[in-house]
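Blackboard transcription, Thursday session:
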Amino acid sequence: MKRLAPQAHERIDRSKTYQFTWQGESYYAYAGDTLASALLANGIDVVGRSFKYGRKRGILAAGVEEPNALVTLESGGYEVPNARATEIELYDQLNAKAASGIPSLRFDLRAALKPFHKFMVAGFYYKTFKWPQKLWPHYEHYLRQLAGFSEVPQQADAEHYDHQYQFVDVAVVGGGAAGLSAALTAAQSGASVLVIDERAELGGELSSEFASSAEAQQWFSSTKQALEQMPNVRILKRSTAFALHDFNLLLVIERRQDHVSLKQRNEKQSRQRQHRVRAKQVILATGSHERPLLFANNDLPGVLMASAMRRYLNEFAVLCGDKPVLAGNNDSIYALAEDLVKRAGVKPVVLDMRVGYDASRLIAAGIDVRQGYTILKASGSNRVEQVSIAKVYYDGKLWSASAATETLDCDVVATSGGFNPLVHLDCHTGSKPLFSNALQAFLPACDKPARISAGSVNGHSDWQACVQDGAYAAHQILGRLEKSVAPTTVKPELKLLNVAPFFCPTHQRNKIFIDMQNDVKASDIELAIRENYRSIEHIKRYTAMGFGTDQGKIGNVLGIALAAQLLNRSIPEVGTTTFRPMYTPVTMGALAGEEVGLLFDPQRFTPIHASHVARGAEFEVVGQWMRPWYFPKAIEHLYDAQSAEDLHTAVQRECLAVRNSVGVMDASTLGKIDIQGPDVREFLARVYTNAWAKLAPGKCRYGVMCDENGMIIDDGVTACLSDTHFVMTTTTGGAARIYNHLETWLQTEWPALKVYLTSVTDHWSTTAIVGPKARRVIEKLCSDIDFNAKAFPFMDWREGTVAGVPARVMRISFSGELSYEINVPANYGRYIWEQVMEAGKEFDITPYGTETMHVLRAEKGYIIVGQDTDGSLSPYDANMGWAVSLTKPYPFLGQRALTRSDTVRTDRKQLVGLLPHDAQKVLPEGTQLVNAIEDKAMIGHVTSSYLSPILGRSIAMAVVKAGLSRMGNTIYAKTVGGETIPVTIADSVFYDTAKEKLDGEV
Amino acid sequence: MAKFEPQFATALEQQDFNRLNSAAFKVQELRDYGYVVLRVDANTEGAAHALAKLDISVPEPLTMTGSLDSHLVKWIGPSEYGITLPLAQKDAFIKAAKEALQGVFAAVVDNSGGYSFLHISGTQRYEVLSKLALYDLRGQLPLGKVVSTIAAKSGVIVYRVEEESLRLMVRWSFAQHFWNALVKASEEYR
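(Written on the board underneath:)
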């Protein structure tokens, strides 16, 4: 292998030399090289070890289909596992190592087990390691160490990724002859066009023609220039369309910085971007991949695809060997032979399975052309050194090879066994490719709306036909887009490469590799069929053919053809396996985009958030909201040392402050729905279990909401503003769900009800002043409301001016204490909070968070929907029969379900209180409950559990089978840790059962 | 009783807007607008008369009528209109609307505090927003159009009243998250 003198159309820039490191050693290559071409130019044969047998592997291809040359690129935060050397654009100081080799590329333990390889056939692991069953974890441990390629990077990714949504009239996948032609035709009509190409430069396989066709070069240059100048055209290079979903959602990964040296990467730019393209029409000009011929030891380094050898020669000026043998079953092999003679002065031996191709020009040039021959076996140590060839005959159905073989010396073998059109994207939405006997290839069906294929994916083999086919395809779709269309071009005739039918030598099939990445051999396919696997999907799974990062791009069609032969069926009868996204591997980062870290899930903030931060609050996430969890105070220690209160201490202090003096809480997160219309009372009566007909303006009422099954789904307080205007509050986490629930019923079942719903959750900010001294605080801020307990009783609301801001003040309570909730527009939320803090200073007003709120409400037995309920608790189960009215003229949602036999069972789990016998023992929430110490049958579980500071003991709420009729019984809580704790079933109202505290200090 | 001086705040006023203040991408938060939700079916009895009295011309789907100087009426959904208007005129408008719609099946709801009102401009505005928004804002949002869509996992209302900019409303509680997303998405243009 060597670098040739400068070639006319090479892609490399010899003025820029890059140093790179491979396997710890330093090498040099040029800008424009891929890692693969750079390795080849440096004479490196072995780039990997095979998956199962640890066989030496070299570079087989020049593009995304490469199965062998998987590398680990860079290290630390820049480490990229399983990158294909053929796709890595070389940059200065690049550092790569082979992705395989146990323990090293030079010596692989698996290769040392060669005598055992004959036993390691398809199904070997299934059959061997199932006995004895108990040893499987040990087997698995070792087998996993042997499996896979690159190790998973250990450090967090140092780079970032993003997404971009694109909308175009026409998306053209592929920037080769057909794609560019289609794009130009489409763009000339005025349509917006997006061209997507996976290579660094446009041109695709057309680039390989430049060296031999000035016309091709000229057409390409003028077309590219025209496209680049059109404002309605966007070209995405280094971009792979990896999925095509319904309604033409095309997913594309653009490698924005992978080609830039680490030092020069722009931190502000994403490394890769996922484009989510909505295209009105998609043109699939995806091209095709060559497939190799099959013969024993076809995986030796130095055996590669003819098209790859041609690309390395023409684009990178790399000659892959001085003594080439070219073998093929179609016309394309001769183009490589001609190029080798012209560019490198090398005369290959050409083996053509067929007879009849006019090779007189090559023969005249002194090239050894042997028609009716193919390779049966290759041999060599580190790379191919010899091939055994034989004459072959085709009887109209099958090939057979002569027993007489001849040996040729060589240092490189390039083969072409036909071409596989890249039908993947077309198949992602369920289309099945169609097999063409004339082309010996599966072609895209393109039977889904708004898409068309063009170029070599349709089987065209010459660039002129691809250009014509691209233009033709564009005309077809422009008609659908109702764009002005130039005179219709004619669909080009297929120029066949005369691909011969499939052939797999019968000799040494255990050395013929179908899928190189997974070490699937022809003998494995034979075995699978012998073991009665018939469907290609089953054969695939039994042998692992088509697994891995290359997804069988090279091997699958060969495997299908061999299976067809063995099953005595036609190839279309066997069919293909399922093509699923992704077409090529996509980094996890590109899938996530910027939606990581803080941007992973929206954090919602109340208008008062900055005040909480300033007071050192700890936060917890409640339904995306960042709610203050508790407000730890600083604790002074000796020598000026400071620490903060822990949760327990802070909550203890906050609870007692509320019970004994006054606290303040940010209640802005509760869902708020403005409900207006003449039928609002009727609407509320239907969605809540209790009655709403007589609630007077100025009053509030607590309501329980059930689903159709009579199970609690939400609760909250609703205020009556007028006979036709109410404001409902919902749980924080349930706001959006309940709004949708209400709208759904209103729009689909009760459209006759005249009611409008408007979410006003964000409009209102709510500050709750809670505790015996609450009245004294609010009276300092508001003079136009009479806060006297009789004038403004519990469950009333008033309109007034608080600290100069128009407000709705509600006297509702989630703690059993006197409580005023001040509602103001969000713009004044923080201001009001600070005014309350100022006014409450003299009472040592204490801000408190959700944890204290939970303790306070549990002391009063108030439920939290979602914590004490789980979708299987009816109002009766929750001991809230008092909130159910069965006498309403129109039954509420879930009413009928409350009479179902299962719902009225007396042994349903019911919500009760629990008092641990050890008053200092706090039961872990979720702890299971049993009747007797030795019982294993669970009768319920703990839903809420706290140490109550005011009661000086632990309390809990729980659901217990028939719990409401078992007051005073002792049952047992069995913790995960194995502890058994006796508890007494009690009423769930633990504190102020006489409700004496509701009016606060009088 | 102490003398109070209420302080008006917006959702993003704690943010450093100099970070998003380049020719490529500029974001301003507008403090002086109110937002009123009007729920009414234009065919409801009495609605036409009331709306005429309020000088409201009901917009067709996805369009707007009026102007930001008095009241810009945006179609949000069937029978739902979002009215953006100068904050100073908001209370008077609500009062007038409630009076005019007395007896008509309708709802007038002040939602001014519910949103952050953003003005987005700059040569790269569409590039930045296309990283976050599912909707084709560049191609499908001509002058006079309004859409409710998702951007950065937040519900937003986007509309255009000027050639070189977009107006975007995001809920108060999501505004900080949306801001963070804008900062990240525009990083490469700063």
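Lecturer's comment: Residues 935 and 972 of chain A are 9 Å apart (CA to CA).
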